[in-house]
Amino acid sequence: MASISAAVKASSAASFAHKVRILSAHSPPTLPWGIRFPHRFSTLTPSLAAVVVSQNDLAAVAAPAQQQQKQRSGRRARSGRVRAVATPARAPRSPASTGSVKGAMTMTEKILARASERASLEPGENVWVDVDVLMTHDVCGPGTIGIFKKEFGEDAKVWDREKVVIIPDHYIFTSDERANRNVDILRDFCMEQNIKYFYDIKDLSNFKANPDYKGVCHVALAQEGHCRPGEVLLGTDSHTCNAGAFGQFATGIGNTDAGFVMGTGKALLKIIGEISVSGATYKSMEFVGSTVDSLNMEERMTLCNMVIEAGGKNGVVPADQTTFNYLEGKTSVEFEPVYSDAQARFVSDYRFDVSKLEPVVAKPHSPDNRALARECKDVKIDRVYIGSCTGGKTEDFFAAAKVFLASGKKVKVPTFLVPATQKVWMDIYSIPVPGSGGKTCSQIFEEAGCDTPASPSCGACLGGPRDTYARMNEPMVCVSTTNRNFPGRMGHKEGQIYLASPYTAAASALTGYVTDPRDFLM
Question: What pTM was computed for the model?
């Protein structure tokens, strides 16, 4: 589904006058979905901001009250109350628990109002918000720790040892001494601070020997129950917006901001009201509609993950029963989802009929360099890469396996598989693919001639040291399910990266050219 969000970026970064194309292979072919933009948000220090979108069917701006009641039903609230399961439908929906409000608010406005203990928020205001979770990893963690110690003192303690989540994931399986030292710094700090959620790795020769190690931070955050509706989650990685799939405010921040949050648990936001010509820049995107409702959590994560490529600071999907089912057994922390009011103000409201959309790719060297996959059928490729927080989840590998299974052929170019986390790796080897006669993804990949699934990590998505698995050390053409294709992103600065969905990536591996997956699936 990487190409879905890449296509969204293509239109949003310009002027939203162009039609947004979205790969509909994961979605029912006749269902509509939409995006809406409210006010912009930004931090007064480096770059913290937010964006919101709302619910629609083809002509509706807000979801029916009955659906909203269904979404809220049966969940534990922060106050300890249990929401009614069979409350009669009401219209319009009343605001969530943010006190008496001056006017209708969007979901993101409600989350930030509650986090700042305000009844409402208005454009132009500066607000301090309480942060529920701060995440950092091996690339930015050492810098964040350094700033924290410089500003708060060598003996300072983090504001809450259970709200700081530290996940090594980027440059892990390498002999590079500097990369390994970064993980050592994280380990020393977590021992000093008694950080509860440090997903450490010590034995690099066998990731399975490290039960605490998870893999890619954005997927691990979700799998380990750190993503919860209505909360504020900040991380030192631009794709932290991935967590917006859970109906929360989630965005990436710089090391300076993170160092301050680490010491205080607070972040300063400025709410910006004006509209720019930069599409979703500093805005919040809220994805709604019957197609969005039909997506599972991993598909919703892909959608929100790519919001940053549109310049957005946050992408959200309203929490519903799919969300609650996913979180069952993953967290004991009480949470209370919020939803946009029917009368909430949005900068823009966009509606799309997915039955008219086709598979797309993002050509080099930008996620907004969009083209239909079938228009690139003459582009010869050297390799295929399936992995990352965007395209390395269980559903992504299932999608690729379905294409290989339908073709019954072997790949014509090297095809690298990098599961996002240990759980995804286990799923590849243990869960039968529907319609395969009991075969797992790993069996189908082996029959197709793919490379053996690698140790879970960010892998070559960010290039990394030269010995990083599947890194492009020579100028090559690669079809990848990752999220960025800037020069040098996956290694060699002259490499060419075509961003695509797992379906398109698998189809391209079978032909050696950029290929529309419908050639095999239809």
Answer: 0.82
